[in-house]
Amino acid sequence: MTEYTDAEKQLIDVWEAHTAAEFEHRDADAAIATMTDHPVLIHVPVNTGATGKEALRKFYAEIFIPQAPPDIDLQLLTRSVGQNRIIDEFILRFTHTLRMDWFAPGIEPTGRKLAVPHVGIVTFEDGKISSEHIYWDQATALVQLGLLDEKLPVLSDTQCDRLLDENAPVNQLIERGMP
Fold this sequence. Notes:
Shape: globular
CATH class: Alpha Beta
Mean pLDDT: 95
Strand content: 25-35%
Number of strands: 6
CATH architecture: Roll
């Protein structure tokens, strides 16, 4: 287990309070309470989020939280903590039972289960979150939603396999393309 300094533990506590507010308590005000006066959220693959405390509170309250499926779950894989920064690698799992404009804008519910690796880069100022840059592979999400041809060189939920088990199959896309 990683040993963290007291300063690093404080950042982790703020970040975990923030994610609990979003995913467990579904409370936009509690999420915003963990942030600076001018926070930034960017879901990089689809450019959703907001800048500024009130705009972000509105985004959380009206889009992100109500459009998070009831079974949404984050599985932390790795965490790096540095000076005023946390980088988390995690798998986001959910059933696409709701329209999720923050994740797949304009796509109506498909009822499909998704497992999508993510990386979150979270920066802090004075002990509060100042920015979140959240990355994921939108192609794997679209394949799992049934919106992108699986014949393309893109993995579906199997993209998570080697992150969870280093002995899981590898090079499936290369082998698929061989005669």
